[in-house]
């Protein structure tokens, strides 16, 4: 008994070629082994393919309509080209979609354009803290493809034109017909003569040899805004690589690299620095002059300041990139203990300790391990 090919595809006997194709497409998507690994789905997929093979072929469909089965062994005769082919390997899912429905993403086929957008470019720019903090107009040297001025991107020598590719007739692709399990599968490959452009350049521009662009070194000035940080990128629209055939240039990204500063370390928009104060100044309190990035500030160190204390100078850090205001400057105080005391100073300090009731054991003046250690550290002769 003949198989119900119309039923397999779920179409009526009057279905048009288009309806059959649509029904097949829908079912093939659903049951292709790449998509649906279920063994039952694989059987179903074979049926769907068989049905499509039969109903998409006028002669075979005719046999079905006359009550025969063109795929049955000896059934309908006419075992012509595109027979079932037994256990032939599956054609890839995408190949089927490409072959029957034109293009992977349903995109248009045909020659690819000679003019294509260019790529982005990136450039590293080293700046000092002062420059990242307050902004700078920095000169940069850019090495990219630019439009060929000889041919303005066309790629052809003066007075000549593109020619239609003879190998593919300008389509940019050549078709080949494969006989497969599914019947005939028509597949298209880019034309190797014109690389898929559909045109050739009989007389290339002597400057760019047909590419429409040339590599060159340019000087630009990039405006760096105040407050940029290490690793940030400034985008210069359409200053990147010009595309093939003189296509729109990509963007140029200038990546900021901030050189380490001798005095300040940066955390976000805050700055940190270290200032040494003598023990006496820390104990008695003092006034310091601090050089900030862009000014001099006088700050008071309170009496009794402990080692590791921090002074905060508001809005003396890096200006915020967005919005107004600035970060703060943190001054970390290193309290320095005196290392070289002459006999008078030592006596004063011992007396001082005594008045405070602080017990200070006296190390032997004459030799002794600890004394020698102390002398070695302090550089005493
Ligand atoms: Zn061609
Ligand atoms: Zn040129």
TrEMBL record:
One of its GO terms (biological process) is response to heat. It is found in: Cytoplasm. PANTHER family: CHAPERONE PROTEIN DNAJ (PTHR43096:SF48), DNAJ HOMOLOG 1, MITOCHONDRIAL-RELATED (PTHR43096). InterPro entries: DnaJ (IPR012724), DnaJ_C (IPR002939), DnaJ_domain (IPR001623), HSP40/DnaJ_pept-bd (IPR008971), HSP_DnaJ_Cys-rich_dom (IPR001305), HSP_DnaJ_Cys-rich_dom_sf (IPR036410), J_dom_sf (IPR036869). It comes from the Bacteria. Binds 2 Zn(2+) ions per monomer. GO terms for molecular function: ATP binding; heat shock protein binding; unfolded protein binding; zinc ion binding. Keywords: Chaperone, Cytoplasm, DNA replication, Metal-binding, Repeat, Stress response, Zinc, Zinc-finger. Zn(2+) 1 binds at residues 148, 151, 205, 208. Residues 4-68 form the J domain. This is Chaperone protein DnaJ. GO terms for cellular component: cytoplasm. Its cofactor is Zn(2+). Zn(2+) 2 binds at residues 165, 168, 191, 194. Belongs to the DnaJ family. Homodimer. Gene3D superfamilies: DnaJ domain (1.10.287.110), Heat shock protein DnaJ, cysteine-rich domain (2.10.230.10), Urease metallochaperone UreE, N-terminal domain (2.60.260.20). CDD domains: DnaJ, DnaJ_C, DnaJ_zf. A zinc finger (CR-type) spans 135-217. Residues 135-217 form the CR-type domain. Participates actively in the response to hyperosmotic and heat shock by preventing the aggregation of stress-denatured proteins and by disaggregating proteins, also in an autonomous, DnaK-independent fashion. Unfolded proteins bind initially to DnaJ; upon interaction with the DnaJ-bound protein, DnaK hydrolyzes its bound ATP, resulting in the formation of a stable complex. GrpE releases ADP from DnaK; ATP binding to DnaK triggers the release of the substrate protein, thus completing the reaction cycle. CXXCXGXG motif repeats lie at residues 148-155, 165-172, 191-198, 205-212. It comes from Micromonospora haikouensis. The J domain is necessary and sufficient to stimulate DnaK ATPase activity. Zinc center 1 plays an important role in the autonomous, DnaK-independent chaperone activity of DnaJ. Zinc center 2 is essential for interaction with DnaK and for DnaJ activity.
């Amino acid at each position: 008994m003949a198989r119900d090919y119309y039923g397999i595809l779920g179409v009526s006997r009057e279905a048009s070629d288009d309806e059959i194709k649509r029904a097949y497409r829908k079912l093939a998507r659903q049951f292709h082994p790449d998509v649906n690994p279920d063994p039952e789905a694989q059987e179903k997929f074979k049926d769907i393919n068989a049905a499509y093979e039969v109903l998409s072929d006028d002669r075979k469909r005719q046999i079905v309509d006359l009550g025969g089965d063109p795929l049955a062994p000896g059934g309908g005769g006419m075992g012509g080209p595109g027979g079932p082919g037994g256990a032939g390997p599956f054609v890839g899912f995408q190949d089927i979609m490409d072959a029957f429905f034109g293009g992977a993403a349903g995109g248009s086929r045909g020659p690819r354009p000679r003019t294509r957008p260019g790529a982005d470019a990136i450039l590293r720019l080293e700046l000092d803290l002062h420059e990242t903090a307050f902004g700078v107009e920095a000169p940069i040297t850019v090495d990219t493809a630019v439009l060929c001025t000889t041919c303005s991107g066309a790629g052809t020598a003066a007075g000549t034109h593109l020619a239609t590719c003879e190998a593919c007739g300008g389509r940019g692709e050549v078709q080949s017909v494969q006989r497969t399990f599914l019947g005939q599968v028509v597949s298209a490959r880019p034309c190797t003569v014109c690389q898929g452009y559909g045109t050739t350049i009989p007389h290339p521009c002597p400057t760019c040899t047909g590419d429409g662009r040339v590599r060159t070194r340019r000087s630009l000035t990039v405006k760096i805004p105040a407050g940029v940080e290490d690793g940030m990128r400034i985008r210069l629209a359409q200053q990147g690589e010009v595309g093939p055939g003189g296509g729109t240039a990509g963007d140029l990204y200038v990546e900021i690299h901030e050189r380490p500063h001798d005095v300040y370390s940066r955390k976000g928009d805050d700055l940190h620095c270290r200032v040494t104060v003598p023990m006496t100044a820390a104990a008695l309190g003092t006034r310091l002059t601090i050089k900030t990035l862009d000014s001099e500030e006088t700050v008071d160190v309170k009496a009794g300041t402990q080692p590791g204390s921090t002074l905060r100078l508001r809005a003396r850090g890096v200006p915020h990139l967005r919005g107004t205001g600035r970060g703060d400057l943190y001054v970390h105080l290193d309290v320095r203990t005196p290392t070289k005391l002459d006999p008078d100073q030592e006596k004063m300090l011992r007396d001082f300790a005594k008045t405070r009731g602080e017990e200070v054991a006296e190390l032997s003046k004459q030799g002794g391990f600890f004394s020698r250690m102390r002398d070695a550290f302090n550089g005493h002769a």
